[in-house]
Amino acid sequence: MQRKRAFINPNICDRCDICPSQANCPTKSIVREEKGEPWYVDVQCIGCGKCTRLCVKQAITLV
Ligand code: SF4
Ligand code: SF4
Predict the structure, then answer these.
(1) Which ligand is closest to the CA of 19, given by its number?
(2) Atom of ligand 2 at shortest distance to CA of 60?
(3) What pLDDT score was predicted for residue 1?
């Protein structure tokens, strides 16, 4: 079975400057190019699901 990865819906993400999901990701997989942009999930995500519980807008799902 293929491992799931986190997905941040850019239409829901509030672009928080301090993103608790990003701050607590064990693989530092939540990134963005510039301040003010939505965060996105990079390839090294291990699908642990921690970020889904910490997002303030429920913008993250495992897919
Ligand atoms: S906490 Fe959720 S809504 Fe806020 S920046 Fe992070 S992913 Fe986006
Ligand atoms: S599922 Fe785990 S590894 Fe993937 S982005 Fe969320 S906290 Fe990071």
Answers:
(1) 1
(2) 6
(3) 72
